[in-house]
Amino acid sequence: MAEAIEKEFGKKPELIKSGGGVFEIEVDGELIFSKKKEYRFPEHQEIIELVRSR
Q: What is the pTM of this model?
């Protein structure tokens, strides 16, 4: 997914290791996806669209 984001936007995302099954995506400090909240992993295109809409 990080590669898809970098390819689409030309910026390398910062990856931060976490535990307990946490998977979150933030843009400029705003949470745009949380696996804990959604109970699923996001699709690559879904994240591209969420980032683009910011």
A: 0.81
